[in-house]
Amino acid sequence: MKRETYLDQHQHHKTWLNYLAFYKDEMQVFQKRLEEVAAKNTDGEVLALVEHFQNQLILQREQHDILRHDIKQDENRIEKLFETDPVFAENSRPKAELVLIDRVETFGRLFHEMKEELYRFVAKNL
């Protein structure tokens, strides 16, 4: 198995940041859908579920921002390495970024689970 380079990690960071940008856009759509459900329903149980999903979105946004920040910090570290010692950076093999990989995958999985649950709720209540 080929061991990754810093350039490979840079490419992962770009891909992850693109995914996070897409997730952020989706969260705005989710918020609008919840507002539509709240406007069309006065049932207390439905409104409680709207609030539940709004809280979920708040948590997702928070985790999104933390993850984005950490990816950008790692990207800054790689850029600094290339600035200070480009030959070393080009030819060395970094440690695998397993923790960051796991966090990105976990965020994506939890986001998609929330999305499916939210869409079922919206479809039922719009």
What is the chain-wise order of helices and strands? HHHH
Gyration radius, to the nearest Å? Answer: 19 Å
- Integer average pLDDT: 92
Q: How would you describe the oligomerization state of the chains in this entry?
A: single chain
Q: Please give the share of residues in helix.
A: over 70%
Q: What fraction of residues sit in β-strands?
A: under 5%
Please work out how many helical segments DSSP would assign.
4
Can you tell me the overall shape? elongated
- Unreliably modeled segments: none
Please summarize the sheet with the most strands. none
Q: Tell me the structural class.
A: mainly alpha
- Ends: how far apart? 50 Å
- Summed up, the domain count is 1
Total beta strands: 0
Q: Would you mind describing this structure in some detail?
A:
The protein has one domain. Helix content is 87%, strand content 0%. It contains four helices and no strands. Helix 1 packs antiparallel against helix 2 (44-84) and helix 1 runs parallel beside helix 4. The longest helix has 41 residues, at 44-84. It is elongated and about 65 Å long. The mean pLDDT is 92.
A few lines on this structure:
It contains four helices and no strands.
Fold topology:
Blueprint: H1 6-40, H2 44-84, H3 86-91, H4 98-125
